[in-house]
Design a protein that fits this description.
single chain; alpha+beta; two-stranded antiparallel ribbon; 3 helices; rod-shaped
Length: 146
């Protein structure tokens, strides 16, 4: 019974909610949600397609272009047969597609152990070891084995 005044403080402590309340008192921004922006980028390489079509009449060369595609049409006459053909060339330009996703993260507290908490843990373990040693020592003396 005389050792209970040492044992009671060792077995009791502050609850996690108390520590959380103290942390929020020191820094209220801990409870604010944080938004993380994830950026995903996809790159598509360019590609060129060349082919020939047979068309009865075309007198000119023409080109058409937009942000992702360029098409060139030209008239080609065969010297032997005299047939007219349209030669077209399609260039697909390289594209970069970027997508941003915003994710709201719940508030979280990440705390690195301080040197003070490591010291208090060491002291607590040392006191516990001394207590166990003392109980064993007293038990040995009482039973006559020590």
């Amino acid at each position: 019974m005389k050792w209970s005044f040492i044992l009671i403080p060792l077995l009791t402590g502050c609850s996690a909610s108390w520590h959380l309340k103290q942390a929020v008192k020191k820094d209220p921004s801990l409870l604010q949600t944080k938004t993380i922006v994830l950026t995903d980028t996809l790159e598509l390489p360019g590609k060129t397609i060349v082919d020939t079509l047979e068309v009865p009449t075309l007198d000119q060369w023409t080109a058409w272009e937009n942000d992702s595609l360029r098409i060139e049409l030209s008239l080609v006459k065969d010297a032997v047969t005299g047939e007219s053909r349209i030669k077209f060339k399609a260039d697909i330009k390289p594209q970069t597609i970027t997508r941003e996703v915003k994710v709201d993260c719940p508030p979280s507290v990440i705390q690195k152990p301080s040197s003070r908490s490591r010291l208090s843990s060491f002291v607590l373990y040392a006191l516990g070891a001394l207590f166990v040693y003392g109980v064993g020592y007293l038990h040995g003396r009482v039973t006559g084995r020590g």
